[in-house]
Amino acid sequence: MSTLIISMDVFDAIRTRRSIREYKPDEINKEDLEKILEAGRWAPSAENNQPWNFVVVTDDATIAHVIDSIPWGKFMRNAPLIIAIVTDPEVETHIIDGALVTQNMALEAWDLNIGTCWVYEMDRDKIKKILGIPKEKHVLTVLGFGYISKVDDSHACRKELEEITHYGKW
Fold first, then answer.
1. What pTM was estimated for this model as a whole?
2. What is the side-by-side strand order in the sheet with 52-57?
3. Which domain does 66 fall in, by range?
4. Measuring CA to CA, which residue among 151, 148, 144 is closest to residue 60?
5. How many domains does the chain have?
């Protein structure tokens, strides 16, 4: 068995990533989209179940129709593409596994100077109908992606480690 040695600055991406709500109108190029999808595909999952599918949408009319089903997602109207993260509720850990996919995609996008923002509240049944997603599947989230137009650092602060970390017991 070979030893895998990887050198990268993941912490920097984690620390600097922001939720982006303003995108340039430029189309996401195919290579960047494939990297984002690959990052999602390589997310860890319990027992390697990989209980996810991705629905990529670039059609403006379809994006607008989907966004109408997301009360806090109106900012995504100017995203050149959206991706619905769809999970399989037959797998007990589908929500956690899908969250890992979402984080991987967001971090890879950030590395490519592409912004995104997680939204959770939405009319999932309506989105399933619009995108032809099987009834038995779960729409975890819909992410808008676009090259970054503006970064808002107003929420960039974090609690101190001493405030949130407990050693041994609470």
1. 0.90
2. 52-57, 81-87, 138-147, 114-115
3. 20-150
4. 144
5. 1
C-alpha to C-alpha distances, 106 to 12, 37, 83, 110, 117, nearest whole angstrom: 14, 10, 11, 6, 8
Q: How confident is the model at residue 4 (pLDDT cuts 50, 70, 90)?
A: low
Task: Pull the structure tokens for residue 143.
Answer: 């992410």
Q: What are the strands, taking DSSP E only, across the chain?
A: 52-57, 81-87, 114-115, 138-147
138, part of any domain? yes
Q: Which two tokens stand for residue 74?
A: 């109106």
Residue 19 — very low, low, confident or very high, per pLDDT cuts 50/70/90? confident
- Are the beta carbons of 34 and 109 closer than 8 angstroms? no
For residue 163, is it within any domain? no
Cα–Cα distance measured from residue 112 to residue 148, given in angstroms and rounded to the nearest whole number: 10
- The verdict on residue 140 lying in a domain is yes
Answer yes or no: is 73 within a domain. yes
| Helix (H), strand (E) at residue 61 | helix 60-67
Q: In terms of C-beta density within 10 A (0-12 exposed, 13-18 middle, 19 or more buried), how is residue 163 classed? A: exposed
What does the block give as tokens for 148? 């970054």
